[in-house]
TrEMBL record:
The lineage of its organism: Bacteria, Bacillati, Bacillota, Bacilli, Bacillales. The chain crosses the membrane at residues 12-31, 43-63, 70-89, 95-113, 134-152, 158-175, 205-226, 238-258, 265-285, 291-312, 332-352, 358-377. Signal peptide: none annotated. This is PPP family 3-phenylpropionic acid transporter. It is found in: Cell inner membrane. The keyword Transmembrane applies. It is a multi-pass membrane protein.
Length: 384
């Protein structure tokens, strides 16, 4: 089996759906389900809380009991059931419950796939993580461009049906043959059964984790209010998908070249560049509320997200034993991609109600401390 093709296909199919969910779902709740921005923000925040619980506890536990292939299938089926439950849900309470159920299964697919990629790299069956991960970014871009055209023609209801179709494809691919190493049932070892707190004794783990938590949390306003903000600054409907996907095009370019051009960069240097780029990005969006500047600032997604994620994956591959990877991925997803984002989604929603641009400027309360910590870690690396 061509493991690069298998991993690339899995990333492509997942991020095809992620490109529907991440930029548009809050907008779908507001326009199709007729929720206020505040109510939609609260629902999405509670979903992120559920996502954190799932990735921190359920995913690592199940990874110790079942193969990666089985977990991938189970998460896919649970996601499909949750998406179907959105059809009858109309009230705030039902939408909240369905969203919590949905987040328990769907977002954990990301650490599941990253864990699979990490294992394949460590087993010498996948040469480069970046080259496979770039296909996820390509899927994200393609669906965003196409979906924006359909939204302009048919309205926000098309967002739901696009996600449903994408999830059906995910489930189908989960039942296709997978690399043999991902079908192996894990064996319990002392390091695999150790508590979460033991991971903080690993070399500089807490510092690297804190930096990526801050950097990923800083995307909360962009993920939840970027679509609404582009409408606020009067971006043409048919261009919104393209503008959103400038960020992912930059991400693709980064992942395509990362293994070659950034191979010699230290993890601390990568994190420092990511923090500086993220700070500049949100200041630009706030200071110049125009479609042109927003579009230019999107290029900095290559720093704010892609480089930060790549740096953490590089740290993980170099320092974390294979048996610990699911726990580390779960911790990263829970703290960096879920709970911190949930807190700053509420914070950003509060600021958005005051003035939309404030929601983006407010994110520098994450990026500036991340820059200071990254520079400190960079100095520590040089001493080691």
């Amino acid at each position: 089996m061509n493991t690069h093709r298998w991993m690339s296909t899995q990333f492509f199919s997942f991020f095809l759906t992620w490109g529907i969910f991440l930029p548009y779902w809050t907008g779908w709740l507001v326009y199709s389900k007729e929720l206020s921005v505040t109510d939609a923000s609260f629902i999405m925040s509670m979903g992120l809380v559920a996502r954190g619980l799932s990735t921190l506890f359920a995913f690592p536990y199940l990874s110790g009991k079942f193969s990666n292939k089985i977990i991938l299938r189970g998460a896919g089926i649970g996601t499909l059931i949750a998406v179907l439950c959105y059809i009858p849900a109309q009230s705030f309470s039902l939408l909240l419950l369905v969203t919590i159920f949905f987040h328990f299964f769907y977002p954990p697919l990301m650490p599941i796939l990253d864990t699979a990629a990490s294992r394949l790299v460590q087993h010498k069956q996948l040469e480069h993580y970046g080259k496979s991960r770039q296909w996820g970014s390509i899927g994200f871009v393609l669906v965003g461009i196409v979906l924006s055209l359909f939204i302009a023609l048919y309205g926000e209801d098309v967002i739901y049906y696009a996600l449903l179709l994408g999830v059906v494809s995910l489930v189908y691919l989960a039942f296709r043959p997978a690399p043999a190493v991902l079908s192996q049932k894990p064996t319990e070892t002392p390091i695999a059964t150790g508590g979460l707190l033991k991971m903080f004794h690993m070399k500089h783990f807490w510092l690297v984790l804190l930096i990526v938590i801050l950097l990923q949390a800083a995307h909360a306003s962009y993920y939840n209010y970027g679509y609404l903000y582009l409408q606020e600054i009067q971006a043409p409907d048919y261009l919104i998908g393209l503008i959103i996907n400038i960020a992912v095009l930059a991400e693709i370019l980064f992942f395509t070249t990362a293994d070659r051009k950034f191979k010699r960069f230290s993890i601390g240097s990568l994190l420092a560049i990511a923090a500086f780029g993220s700070t500049l990005r949100w200041i630009l969006v706030f200071a110049f509320p125009s479609v042109i500047v927003f579009s230019i600032a999107q290029v900095l997604h290559a720093c704010s997200f892609a480089m930060a994620h790549y740096a953490f994956m590089k740290y993980l591959i170099q320092n974390i034993p294979p048996a610990q990877i699911p726990k580390v991925q779960g911790l990263y997803s829970a703290l960096a991609l879920s709970w911190s984002t949930a807190v700053f989604t509420l914070f950003g929603g509060y600021l958005y109600d005051i003035k939309p641009g404030y929601a983006f400027l407010g994110m520098i309360v994450c990026t500036v401390p991340a820059l200071v910590l990254a520079m400190r870690y960079r100095r520590v690396e040089k001493l080691c």
